[in-house]
Amino acid sequence: MSTVAIAVTGAGWSTTYQDLGRQDAERLGVPTGGAADQYSAAVANLLVGNPRGAPLLESLGGGLAVVPDADVLVAVTGADSRVTVGGAAVPTWSPVLVPKGCELRVHELRRGVRSYLAVHGRVDAARFLGSAAPDPRMGFGQVLGPGSEVRVRTVSRGWSYGHFGQPLLRLPLPGFRPGALDRPVDVVPTHGAGAASGIRELVADSLYTVTVRSDHVGLRLDGPVKHPDDDTEIVSHGVPIGALEIPHADELIVLGRYRTLTAGYPIIGVAARACLPVLGQAGPGRRLRFRWVDRETAVRRSAEQEAALRALESATSDAFAALGLPGPCRPTE
């Protein structure tokens, strides 16, 4: 292995180190955090032969640009965007070689707000509770800007691949694109849905708009809501990622990966796991619809998404083994 230095020449609105979050941190009172669009982050890593949860870059709003000092294998996923290497367009959601000294740039985003850049190898990023994911409230920012340098231990140095040629690898890439999806977000109702009469019908029939006050803590949605039928105080309780919460204000909040772990507002439902990547790509102005589903449907769709990721993981392992390169571990059957 050798160490490659990747200079950050553009960071868009915000670029940070990222991964899939902290394991078992919530029992310590620390949110798991991690990529808002876990699916796109995992696929980016798999496409370059890394484990799903390896550190990578998460960039908000487009404008990310990097220049390596040696050839590196990368993949850009997430928002629907235009990406160039040395000024020439290259495919997203595909392994791409960036030659030494050439700039990779993520241009305007067409749908979605977050791009993920994975680099084959081990990204040298600081860790907090075992994760490279930022947590600004804990003083762990992980912010990258122009002039920053990302160091990667990789074996891809010396590869020769022109980005005008055939794709480097043909992999069974799932067709799911969280940034471009227009279908309703699946929600499993909780007992809190009974606290406000008519709330399920209202949510199912309404269109909600993501406001500028949204962040990793939660999406704040402008749209019609109903409040509980009485003023009974609710004892604070644990809240999962994806919970649909009705605060005192006239808004709906979908809690994200950096939520506070307890709350005392009514939770009327929880977004299905398979739809969380869609919420992770929803920026201000994005309009969302919700669809009530039962628990079995939500579990089945999550299992289908996981099966597609495992198929990609298995194919990538085989491809990298054939090339004599380290790849992601083959998933357990």
Describe this structure in words.
- There is one protein chain.
- With 333 residues, the chain is α+β, with helices and mostly antiparallel strands.
- The chain contains four helices and 21 strands.
- The strands form three sheets. Strands 1, 2, 3, 4, 5, 6, 7, 8, 9, 10 and 11 form an eleven-stranded antiparallel beta sheet that branches. An eight-stranded mixed beta sheet has the order 20-13-14-17-16-19-12-21.
- α1 (38-47) runs parallel beside α4.
- The longest helix is centred in the last third of the chain and has 28 residues, at 295-322.
- It is elongated and about 65 Å long.
- The two termini are 30 Å apart.
- 44% of the residues are buried.
N- to C-terminal separation? 30 Å
Instruction: Characterize the largest beta sheet: strand count, sense, and whether it forms a barrel.
Output: 11 strands, antiparallel
Count helical runs.
Answer: 4
Q: How many whole angstroms does the radius of gyration measure?
A: 20 Å
Structural class of the helix and strand makeup?
alpha+beta
- Which residues sit in consecutive blocks of at least 5 with pLDDT less than 50? none
Name the helix and strand elements from N-terminus to C-terminus, one letter apiece. EEHEEEEEEEEEEHEEEEEEEHEEH
Oligomeric state, counting identical vs distinct chains: single chain
Query: Mean pLDDT, nearest integer?
Result: 90
Question: How much beta, percentage-wise?
Answer: 25-35%
Helix content: 10-25%
Number of strands: 21
